[in-house]
Each structure stands twice: as structure tokens, then as C-alpha cells.
Amino acid sequence: MSIVRSFRPNTDYEKCKRCGICQTYCPEGTIMVIQEEGPLIDYRYCKGCGVCANECPFKAITMVREE
Amino acid sequence: MSELDRRFDDYYAKRKFYGGNSCCPGCGGPLFWRMAMEAFGPRTIVYGIGPCAGCTMRSIKLPSFNIHFSFVADGASGILAAFRAQGINDITVISSAGDGGTADIGLGKISAAAERNENMIQVCIDNEAYMNTGIQKSGLTPYGSWTTTTPLGKEAPKKDIPLILAAHHIPYVATVSVAYPQDLKKKFEVAKEIKGFRYIHVVIPCPTGWRFDPAKSIEVTKLGVDTWLWPLYEIKDSVLHLNMKKEAKPVKEYLETQQRFRVMKPDQIEWLQKETDRRREELLTLDGKKLFY
Amino acid sequence: MVQVRMMEGNEAAAYGAMLSRAQVVPAYPITPQTELISFIAQFIAEGRMKAEYIKVEGEHTAMAAAIGASAAGARVFTASSSQGIVFMEEPLWMPPGMRLPINMCIVNRSIAPTGGLRPDHNDSLLQRDTGWIQLYCENSQEVMDTIIMGYKIAENKNIYLPVATCYDGYFVSATASKVEVPEQKDVDAFLPPYKHDWYSLIPGESKERPSRGGSARNRYEVQQANERAKKIIEEVDKEYAKTFGRTYDGMIEEYNCDSSDVVLMTMGSMTGTARDVVDDLKKNGKSVGLLKLRCFRPFPTEEFQQLAHKYHVIGVVDRNTSTGSAGGGIVSMELARALYHLDDKPLIANFHVGLGGTDVTPRQIEYMADKTLEIMKLGRVSEPVDWVELKDLGPVM
Fold first, then answer.
1. DSSP letter, residue B53
2. What's the pLDDT tens digit per position in C334-376?
């Protein structure tokens, strides 16, 4: 069963400072921030709500239209 | 299954919540429960749900028992008595209800459970209306808010449930917000160590019912706190402790973020600002003082 | 040492709960049940009963707390009457569908506005669609015994249904009669500790309820459990008789029915008066027997079908009304349906008496006995529903 969403979060790993705010505030809990890798997103369950992009202090996440 | 999927499944299993849930995008509910669960630990069970609160609660892996929507705090009283009768005393019982269950249909029951000082943590998951049945007004809908049953805006302000329950002389009352997770977790850790009836009230953002872009969920919640419409405080043994005392942002900033307040007239917004300022002054004066006899 | 004492019904019920080792009692006072819960509170305070008494703020909460406690592994006891039963109607539907073996006493009291504090059976009969097992008691001894048997029936692993022990307010609850109180060790041997195989609220412990979802399937399963309960009720009664020396003949008792072509059928405290009247009538040459309906739910359809051929007329005495019904009182309609498909079935007369808790007098019972004999002679029922109390029958005895 796959999830339907209009937008998906896209990460710029250069800008990301691994602060973890996206992981804290993701309502679904589908972001895992790893020090070496940055934010990993579980696209099986991400609803594309956009909270992560909105809260990121470094604007490292942008919402792009789902294909 | 990809490597990433497997890593996430391990992550969910370790943190004891489910990756997906059936809540609306941007709902603050599952956020609240995830934060709560980290503080409470695995030896916890949850009783009771309101429809939205239940939807959010199903995102965590804790044993839960529910009767029906109007049964607030009563089944938990029975569960606690059964545990006492069997000599089980190390399980934290959380009793959860929505704003309708807490302030309307179940208020008498919560009051009675508070009076009996039942050893449970009563949590109100407040999305400020009967959301799951299609956005109808509840006792905790804020002044001026549109709902399907108050299309011209709600006539009366929110009931002050935290203060009502504090007047029952219960050991601990707290208001929390998902926008301030450190404060939230600290309060849960405090609540866990206290015996007796504890009440925690959280206002969670509801993009569907409040009518705003889900991406702004945390932003809107922060504004609710920062405008002093939703002050964060604790009442420990009837003594008030304000957790946040910064300057208040104008309430207009908060009201403008959500379409449900579009029906408010300028004089109503003015009244709300005056009342919020007055209440802020009052709370600052009472800070550190004992509130009730 | 078996104690023999005069005891009111409410005290006997409290003893029943105590001997059954009920662990959680959530209860709210209402006349005529109040003494029952006061006695339980007293027993707990004296240390004779180890139970948690939850002083709830209303009957709706009482049943909800009972549900929570039963699911969490405790043996639960509660009680209420009339307005309290109606107030707890919302949670009353839960235990049968959730298969929780809660035991409660319904101390019968009529329902407002066409009722007061005194008893009739509408409050318990109102629950007949829920799935609760219902047993009706005649005196204090039977109340105590039925509560103990009730737990044995309810907690049977093939049943898991809640049981309501019903007895008339004032006439049983506040009237003293002789009671033999069994010893705790004998009751312990008869009634093992409660453990539900399908429920656990302990984190880490996992149990499973063996049933598939869907309303029709769930309801069918509760119905099947009710059917299975018929045999269990009879078996438990026999086992109780072997251990404690008292039997209640299972679901239906036939009293002094030998060589009777007609019978009256009663439920509850009026059975006691009816026994005396029927004995007197027999001495004076009028042969009317007495059926005591002890178990209303599950309705003993098969048992009735088997004994129906013995009688030409069954005069059903309904201490209840079902306003606007197809014809008469609740018990008479159930009996009519039970016997409907028999080729050779008795006539059914229906009497309304004792409504709102008025005394069911010997004169009224004699009148009803005479009426059933008349119906047998006529070969038909002249008055389908007989409102006995609205007739002037002369002196009470």
C-alpha cells in the first residue's frame, strides 16, 4: 500500500547542519537524522505535509512536486 | 525491502512507534504521543480515546483499552483498582481524551476522578473542536472561531479546564505544547514521579479544522504560546509556576494564520487582545503563589 | 461453621459478593440497593472483604469502571436499580459484546414516571436485548446463592458473559428471611480465582480474542454463548446442590404441578406468595400449579417446549409492561414465541400485576388462578391482557 502525496521533501545535504529539528517536529516520525548522512526520510509513510521544510533553520529542505 | 526501509523499521521498533498513521498531514497528535512516550517509557498503558485522539494514539505501540468516546477517566479508575487488587503497582496509567470528552461530555467524570485522586495522568488532546465528526464546536473552541455549528464565530471563550481541575487540589496540573518539546518532556518526567491525579493539557494544531497550510503546523502552535493565548505553566500542589514569561506577540498575528478566525470582527479581536493582556498580567502576578484554599 | 441467620436481601447479596471474593466494586447508591453497597463498604472497612471500592459519581461511571477493571484482570461486582440501570444503559451494552464476566445485582425498582421507589421488573427486562444473562431470585438465600453461582457461570471459558442477579426491591432487598451462609473455604473450592484468557493490559503480555470481526459475526457469537449458557446454568445449579445442599431447579421450577392442567407462571418475590396460595387452592379442590421462571435470559425455549404438553393453560404473571407491544407483557410475549411452532400448545393468559411495586396479594393470585381455570373450561382466552390491579377484587386475603 503506497501513500499518496502532492509534495515530497527534498534535502540539500550541504546546507543541512544535522541540528535534528526536522526529526523532532515531523508529525509522522519518518525522519531519522544521522550525523554522517544527514536526514533520512521514510518515503513509505511521509505525507508531504511540509513541516520539516518550514522549520529547518537553514532552509536545507524544500518541498518539490511529487511525480 | 530496501536497506533504508529496514533501517527505518529498526528505528520504529526501537522507539516503539509506527512509521505511518491515519492522521491528517500536519496533525500535532502523533507528535505529542511520540514525545510523551519517550518520557514515560514502556511500562505504560493508555486508556480512552476521543476519535481524533484515538487516531493519533494508534501511532504508538502501547497497550491500550477503550470503551467509547464519552467514557473519560472512568474505565481507568476501574483498571487502577484492578491493578491494586492484584498487587500490580509499577504500571503508569494514562487516561486520554479529546477536548470534547474532557470539557463537555466527560467533565463530570474527570472532576470525580480528580476528587478521588485516582493515580492516573489525565491527558487532554485539545484540537479545539469535535474534529473527527466534521468540525463542530466544543467547550474548548476558542472565542470567535468558525465551526460548522458556530458559522458566525463562537460566542464564549474557552473553558479553563486546567484551573478548574487545579481547584480540585490535585497534585499536578500542566499545560504543554508540541512546539516546545523540551518543556513538554520535562513536565512528563515530573508527572511520572508524582502519585495521585495529574492533569496535562496540550493544544495540538489541526490544519484540517483550523484551516491552514499543514507546513505551518509548528509555526502556528508557537504563535499560540507566544501570544499568551496558550500560556505554558504548571500548578504543583496549588502553587502556580509560569514556564514562559516573554513579551507577548499580538494575538492578531496568531488569528491571521488560520482561516477559522476570518469571521471575527475588529472589535472582537480588540476585546480578545485586551482579555489576553489582562490575563497575562494576572498570571504574572500570581506566579509563585498558592492559588486555592 | 455454617452460619444460619435472618438476613435481608441486600445483606445476603453483600455476603454473596464477599464470599465470591469480588476484587473491585464500583457502585453508586440508589434506593433500594443502598444497603447492599453500605454492607460491602462495611465488610471492607472491617477487613473481612479484600476489595477495592470505587465511590463513583454516577451509574454510567460505575459500569465503565467495572468494564475497565474486568478487562484488567479483577473479579468485579456492582449493583443498581431503575433510574441507575437506565443511566448506565450506554456501558451496559459493552460487557456482553466484549465478553467480560462482570456480575451485577439489579435490585428491581420501577422506572419513572409511571413508577416510584417500589419494584417491578421493567428495569432489568429492559436489558433483554443486550446479551446479559438474567436470573431472578425469590428470597435472600437465593440471592446469595445465585451471586456465587453467577460467577461460576460467567467465568466459564466457553461462556464469558456478564450475569445479572435480579431481585425485587423492598420485598426481597429489605425483607429478612432465613439464610444459611456457607463457609468461605467451601465457596473457594467451588469458585476458582478469576483469570480471563483473552484480555491483558500488562505491557509485554499478549493475549488474543478468538473471534473474527464484523457485527453479524460478533453478535452471532454472543448469541451462541447465550445458548451454551443454558446447559451451564443447569450444571452449575446441580454442582451447587451437591456442595451446599440447595437447588433451584436450574432455569424453570415446577412447583406443585402434579395433576394440574393449568399453571400460573411467576418471576421474582411474588413466587413466594404464589406457592402458599397454590397449596391452599389445591387443598380446596382447585388444581392450579406454579411455574417459577428463574432464568429469563437466555430464555429457556427448549425447556418450555418440553413441558408445554403437560398444561392446557399457562397464566403468565407479568410484573412489567411493554407499552404499545404486540400483546401484553414481556414474559408472555417471549413464552408465546417459544411455543409458537408446537402443534399442541397451551393457551397463554396474560396478567399485569404488581406494577409500580404494589403488593401482589393472595387474593390477586387466587383471582388469576380462577381465571386460568375458567379459560381452560371455555377453551379460549376471553381477555388477552388482564390488568388485575384495575379491578376491585374485594379484601386482600
1. H
2. 999 999 999 989 999 999 999 999 999 999 999 999 999 999 9
d(CA C1, CA C111): 41
**C56, B63: Cβ pair inside 8 Å?**
no
Q: Is 70 exceeded by the pLDDT of residue C212?
A: no
Kind plus residue range of the DSSP H or E element containing B77: helix B74-85
pTM of the model: 0.93
CA neighbours within 13 Å on the CB side: how many for B218?
22
Q: What is the DSSP secondary-structure string of C332-391?
A: HHHHHHHHTT-SS--EEEEEE-SGGG----HHHHHHHHHHHHHHHHHTS-S-SEEEGGGS
Give me the amino acid identity at C88: M
Report helix, strand or coil for C121: coil
Are B78 and C23 within 8 A, CB to CB?
A: no
Contact A30 B30 (CB under 8 A): no
- pLDDT band per the 50, 70, 90 thresholds, residue C301: very high
Supply the ipTM of this predicted assembly: 0.92
- Does A29 touch chain B if contact means CB atoms closer than 8 Å? yes
Residue C89 to chain B, least CA–CA distance (Å): 13
Question: Which chain B residue shows the shortest CA-CA distance from A3?
Answer: B20
Q: Is B34 on the interface with A (CB under 8 A)?
A: yes
Distances (CA, A) of C307 to B234, C312, C371: 70, 11, 21
Asked if the C-beta of B41 comes within 8 angstroms of chain C's C-beta atoms, the answer is no
Residue of C57, C76, C90 with shortest CB distance to B108: C57
Chain pair A-B, CB pairs under 8 angstroms: 77
Contact call for residues C94 and B69 (beta carbons, < 8 A) = no
- Could you give the CA distance from residue C227 to residue C219 in angstroms, rounded to a whole number? 12
Which residues of C139-243 form beta strands (DSSP E)?
163-168, 176-181
By CB neighbour count within 10 A (0-12 exposed, 13-18 middle, 19+ buried), where does C379 fall? exposed
